[in-house]
Write a structure and sequence with these properties.
The complex is a heterodimer of chains A (144) and B (320). Helix content of chain A is 29%, strand content 15%. Chain A is of the alpha+beta class. Chain A folds into two domains: 61 residues, Phenylacetic acid degradation B (Ubiquitin-like (UB roll), Roll); 46 residues, no CATH class. In chain A, strand 1 and strand 2 form a beta hairpin. Chain A is elongated, with a radius of gyration of 26 Å. Chain B has a two-stranded antiparallel ribbon. In chain B, a hairpin with a 4-residue loop joins strand 1 and strand 2. Chain B has a single domain, classed as Ferritin, core subunit, four-helix bundle (Ferritin), CATH 1.20.1260. The radius of gyration of chain B is 21 Å and the shape is globular. In chain B, helix 4 runs antiparallel to helix 11 and helix 5 packs antiparallel against helix 6. Classes of the chains: A alpha+beta (144), B mainly alpha (320).
Chain lengths: 144, 320
């Protein structure tokens, strides 16, 4: 918990405000309001943060209930060693290696796009396009 | 012993600032960083609130329903910006014992200053237009220069404020363009308003000399541009536009020096405006402060009643 006793010395309580702009996006922290109650905090938050923007959902949370760590605590956020084995860029050599097999490396976005459409799709599109030896090899693959 | 720990913390803090890191409310910070920020952000917040007053005078007198809706939205934005900024200021000032109530009281006890422009009268609809166009234009330049500020909660609020200011900019321009396209009387009204506001606008950016608090702000990267740099940017942007609609700027000395790449202009009356701001002695200072005070004191019972109701109804929510 934060040192919050000092924050509630005023008449009203501080609330942190979170807005969900789109049903498929997470709530986003937008700022803070001062209010007499949770009901009023919701109204003040709407007046402060949603005068123009459309929103799907609004949360207000009493500030005292939010625990905080910031970048001031360097150790807490430290990445102790290279973690590229957890990331896509740790496997960037796949593309080159697939090429040797006359195949194109796959990306998640194209899979997402692909499954939006009905039908099996065309296996030929999986072959590295526009590149000399890929075109040559196409008949072999087809003939298989 | 205490001093050496303190020195070490200051050194670590400066290293964070120099690495371009942003500071959060819960982080350790030197006292002068906190003090200068509290004062600056409170003044900014209070100026937003007092800045709504000259414009609110025009809500009942706006020339059309659309104009009335437009200027009402603007007044509401200014008060909203004031609330966001005071949240940031009061959180920083909490260890010093300040609250929202005390920050508002500071306006009418004279403990906090607000921008010179909001002490001045707005006698015609053209003044409402010029406030939106040039006063907001000047405010946008100073606020945009703060977007990179080292204090993260302030930077986040400024980002939102600047987004809404883009509406204010269009709104002000729309009003003055209608007058500029209008009758000779309307154009004269616009010229008179520019004449009234010009000196205040030059004062708005503050003196060219770098003050002690400005030095602290530059050191801690709270701001990175000087008053003079911002005034120069304002002149470069607005002088050609003001002239393009056939208006005269009431300063015969105003010219651009190509060699120095600088504007030369007549210094505003630093003494007179300085006194207006320090003593709240401008033509409209006392009337607007009185309105602000009555809004705060006359409605104190409402705030207390709401608090009492909330405490009795929401016992379980806040665990009280």
């Amino acid at each position: 918990m934060t040192t919050d006793s000092e924050h509630s010395s005023g008449l009203y309580e501080a609330y942190e405000v979170f807005v969900q702009y789109d049903v498929l996006e997470p709530h986003q922290y937008v700022g803070s309001v001062l209010a007499s109650s949770t009901d009023m905090a919701l109204i003040v938050a709407r007046e402060n943060f949603l005068r123009r923007d459309k929103a799907h959902s609004l949360w207000v949370v009493p500030k005292q209930f939010i625990a905080v760590k910031t970048s001031e605590d360097v150790d807490f956020f430290a990445v102790e060693f290279d973690r590229d084995y957890r990331r896509v860029d740790g496997y960037s050599d796949n593309a080159r290696r697939w090429k040797a097999f006359k195949q194109r490396a796959m990306e998640i976005d194209e899979v997402v796009e692909d499954v939006k459409h009905a039908g099996s799709g065309n296996p030929e599109e999986q072959i590295t396009p526009g590149d000399g030896f890929a075109t040559e090899s196409a008949p072999t693959q087809k003939g298989r | 012993m205490v001093t050496s720990t303190e020195d070490m913390r200051v050194t670590q803090f400066m290293a964070r600032i120099e690495r371009g890191e942003k500071i959060e409310a819960t982080d350790w910070m030197p006292d002068d960083y906190r003090m200068v920020l509290v004062k600056f952000i409170q003044m900014h917040g209070v100026s937003e609130i007092m800045g709504a007053y000259p414009e609110k005078e025009w809500v009942p007198k706006a020339p059309s329903l659309r104009r009335k809706l437009g200027i009402m939205s603007k007044v509401q934005d200014e008060i909203g910006h004031g609330q966001l900024l005071l949240r940031v200021a009061e959180e920083l000032a909490a260890p010093l014992g300040a609250t929202r109530e005390s920050m508002i009281e500071d306006i009418y006890t004279g403990r906090i200053k607000f921008h010179n422009v909001f002490h001045m009268p707005a006698p015609s609809w053209a003044d409402a237009g010029v406030i939106g166009w040039l006063v907001d234009g000047a405010a946008i330049i100073s606020q945009a220069a703060l977007l990179d500020t080292s204090y993260a909660p302030y930077a986040r609020v400024l980002k939102r404020i600047c987004a809404e200011e883009s509406f204010h900019m269009q709104h002000g321009e729309s009003i003055i363009l209608s007058l500029a396209e209008g009758t000779p009387e309307q154009r004269q009204m616009l010229q008179d308003a520019v004449n009234r506001w010009w000196e205040s606008l030059m004062f708005f950016f503050g003196p060219p000399e770098i003050s002690e608090s400005a030095r602290v702000m530059l050191k801690y990267r709270i701001r990175e541009r000087t008053n003079e740099e911002l005034r120069q940017k304002f002149l470069t942007r607005y002088v050609p536009r003001i002239r393009s609609i056939g208006l005269t700027i009431p300063d015969e000395a105003l010219s651009y020096d190509r060699n120095k790449e600088q504007w030369t202009y007549t210094q505003p009356d630093w003494q007179r405006f300085g006194e207006i701001v320090r003593k709240n002695s401008g033509p409209m200072s006392q009337a607007r402060i009185a309105l602000r005070k009555s809004a705060h004191t006359d409605q104190a019972w409402v705030r207390e009643a709401m608090k009492r109701t909330a405490d009795s109804v929401h016992v379980s929510v806040l665990g009280k």
